Amino acid sequence: MEAELDGINSVHDDDxxxxxxxxxxxxxxPWPVEPPxxxxxxxxxxxxxxxxxxxxxxxxxxxxVTTGNFFDARSDxxxxxxxxxxxxxxxxxxxxxxxxxxxxxxxxxxxxxVAEDDDGTVTLTDxxxxxxxxxxxxxxxxxxxxxxxxxxxxxxxxxIEFPDSTVWEFGADGRIxxxxxxxxxxxxxxxxxxxxxxxAASSTGYTLSFTYGANGLLSRVTSSDGRTVDYGYHADDTxxxxxxxxxxxxxxxxxxxxxxxxxxxxxxxxxxxxxxxxSGRVISQQTxxxxxxxxxxxxxxxxxxxxxxxxxxxxxxxxxxxxxxxxVMTDSTGNSVARGYSDEVRLDSFTxxxxxxxxxDLDADTGLPGSIxxxxxxxxxx
Length: 382
Known about the structure:
Elements: E1 58-59, E2 63-64, E3 71-77, E4 88-93, E5 99-100, E6 103-104, E7 106-108, E8 113-116, E9 122-125, E10 131-134, E11 136-137, E12 140-141, E13 150-153, E14 158-161, E15 167-170, E16 176-180, E17 186-191, E18 197-202, E19 207-212, E20 218-223, E21 228-233, E22 239-243, E23 249-255, E24 258-263, E25 269-275, E26 282-287, E27 291-298, E28 303-308, E29 313-319, E30 326-330, E31 336-341, E32 347-351, E33 357-362, E34 369-374, E35 378-381
């Protein structure tokens, strides 16, 4: 993902009929460019781990512009699209200090878990590392921000039901132990004495088996169709390599426990990161396609500015201090685009630099987009 904001610069940059700042089509007034109300600090970074949060915007390759979290995702063993819940995937979050079965910062498939706090709030840790809080509301739970699943308390255990009828079932230890869908497919997740995944068995016949090294970390995943992926580690137990079924190896260098460099299977640089030693945020990043970009964070004004060092071009992102959602993006020429959200912080409108507004009608039951309303074409069902 490039550091520049796609879609801002255009052939209309010198056309005075196109305003530099988008306007609200209802009032004709410019979108606000002052910091929205909220605390002058970034929200909890774990709310933004992975890339599933609707309010999140990535700059660089990719870095969450609100938190400065570098995140990366890999699907190491994929299965046909008709097979439920068997893809073996992993997600890295540089601000995640937790150590999972792949070492510090890595989350993976079958890593979902739930835990109840003293006040009754249940926190879901998703497979991409993101945390979602379900607060008690009468006999059930209030709808969390930007998460489509509904948490159900079954006494000693929990389950999460999704609008597409997929169900996650959690065991008494809070870890996910089964995934089901409306077709009757089931994935049963077996665990060893330490709670680590040992097997994943699909009712379609596919299986995954997990092998661990002397350091307690995952060393190999084997699919029933013969494919494998192997993992190696540095002396500090951070992930050093992933060797895929075709024999190719991707490598990771770390500094201070976080990824400083990734190289592909040909040994070519993919990315190099520099982090602020105090906050842990990415402050500089080098990639082959975009050179070096810098990241500057202003918590008082709730903005992040990303600058292409070679071109001197900068994009500034204004984010909401309460939710962390990015609301306005402005490029180095002063052109802006704006994003609007529902109360649940799901993206429901977008205003481009010409002032044209695009709305997303969200389904009342699922919160998912049901149609897009464009200025010229009108509503289109999704």
